[in-house]
Amino acid sequence: MSATPAIPQQAGGFSGHAGYNTYGFSGLIDMPSAYSRPDGELAFTSSHFQNQTRNTLTFQITPRLSGSFRYALLYDVRPYPDNPVSDFRFDRSFSLHYRLLDEDHRRPAVAIGLNDFLGTGLYSSEYIVASKHVTPDIRVTGGIGWGRLAGVGSFRNPLSVLSDSFDTRPGRSADNGGVVQTNNWFRGDAALFGGIEWQATDKLRLIAEYSSDAYPNEDGSAFNRKSPLNFGLSYAYRPHIIMGLNYLYGSEIGATVTVGLNPKTPPAGAGQDKAPQPVVPRADLAKLGWSQDMLNPNVQASRINAALLKDGIRVHGIDIANRVATVEIENERYANMAQAIGRTARHLTALTAPAVDTFVVVPMVSGMRGASVTLRRSDMEKLEFDADGAWRSYARAEFDTVQAGLSPIAGRYPLFDWDFKPYLSPSFFDPDAPVRADFGMELSAKFEPSPGLVFRGTLRKKLFGNLDESDRDSTSGLQHVRSDFNIYEREGDPALTELTGAYYFKPGKDLYGRVTAGYLETMFGGVSGELLWKPNNSKLAFGVEVNHVKQRDFDQRFGFQDYEVTTGHVSAYWDIGNGYHGQVDAGRYLAGDWGATVALDREFHNGWKVGFFATFTDVSFDDFGEGSFDKGLRITVPLNWVSGQPSTEHYTTTIRPVTRDGGARLNVSGRLYESVRGLQQDELRDGWGRFWR
User: Fold this and answer.
1) Within the chain, what is the greatest distance between any pair of CA atoms?
2) Which of 26, 117, 287, 535 is positioned for an S-S bond with 510, CB 3.0–4.6 A?
3) Strand ranges (E), 522-559
4) Whole-model pTM?
5) Is-contact 331 313, C-beta < 8 A?
């Protein structure tokens, strides 16, 4: 269903989407509304008023569901009712907002939400809210709230008609946070809230609301609350840059800024790729005349290799025989493998003899072959300018799993490559600082002496930053496999972050294997082995990984500490469909604990990924410490989305509320699933829209 309510629109009226409130999710000023943001939008909101600063990252997970992670900086608050006032504290919390009903001409939009359901409970609340347009420029919102949102004008819970248990809201004592306490949800007294919005111009929105939040932890210490009425204005400088100014609770002035983006809409538009080689029809090719030398398959192979290498595509093997040209390629430039296959086929129309009528293109990575793609030359000639050429070319292509490969072309091995570039290493929302980061230069090198054998090394030198300024000592009762990260940052400059040798192989039709040894990551070195079962056209895959590793010295050079451990996981991967992807990893973690990690990602065709993960092990919440269990957000941004220039590189960051030792997994590079899946039919189909680009 559409994310935009089915309402009549007029010039200057609402878009049908919500604004962002001071808590960083869909709403008015402090209160929620029933609308949603555009599907896929990722936004950061920072709001401030007296002694309250909230920084929130919100993702519109589906057209109806959004999730938020909030990091608040609070002064002079009482974290729990019976506790004394705290001079200063950080508070981390999560929210969910789900739109149950769309608005139409007769009914309002209706949404339900949970606030701070996975934190210490400072903002814990639930709500049901409805919003409706009165005119194209005016809309009203009304709702009922529980918990934090039942502080003003509260009354007996209407859900008590179902059970008397809804009358009482169990209190939450001080704990490590991170525990979902469903026995609180929609319990205790309730209260009403509401507001009105006027879209005065295309960019300016005026808001008034009645807030049911009495600020029980802040009123009288952090600020003086005098009224439940709030007034504000919101100015959309650009569709994804929104600024707000608010008069709050009869006593305070506040400001809000939201900066967002949508992975579906790259800032560089469709990109700035160099124009592809045009398809050359055989009739035109024959007119040019082919000498006996040009008809030689070896000469054709040499010309194909040179042309593709110039286009950012490395040839691994070529065979031209029996009217079929088979080319194994390694894509080094394009974020989308289907685009590399399309460009390869274009070059083949110009560089193979007219007698060749079939092209077979086999994508490869690290010596492993993916699904072969068979294309008829006549289809290339007919569909280049067809209005529906992308779909028709995919429908006519044939996909198969290749067993035997071609011999590498002369000069393919050995191969040495290196790169020298800047790096950025950030840390977000840890318990002591909202943002820390290091910036420096990174020298990396890769050597491939033979198919499947890859040696890698990476050396980093920090130029400036403050990751090493964290002085938080680990109090973990587990082996300090991650919680001493600040010591690694302090002593590891320069740092040898990776020095490995890896061998990749295919032991069977749908099987892929990897063995890696060396300094595997910043904190551990040893041996890692992996086996993956991934059929070409299956949405499921299964893998097993076993590692024996030893903890590295803090300076990240060649020495080791005494601690060593055998760790490993059995993994299941599921392509759910519509861009959603699930993964479960069960096994033993670096601190010796046993358990499982569950992850859900939303993946976009252009390479963007936004996901959430949570790990539960046999370490008790108390032994784990603050946060109770490992969890966080992970975001992957393809660099070509930012620059518009073709690139296979991407930037990935993980946002954890807190870094602890329980549930810590080895960070070995080159794991098989992400390496292999881009070579198979499902992934090629999803990216086939760029076949002709």
Assistant:
1) 93
2) 535
3) 524-533, 540-552
4) 0.89
5) yes
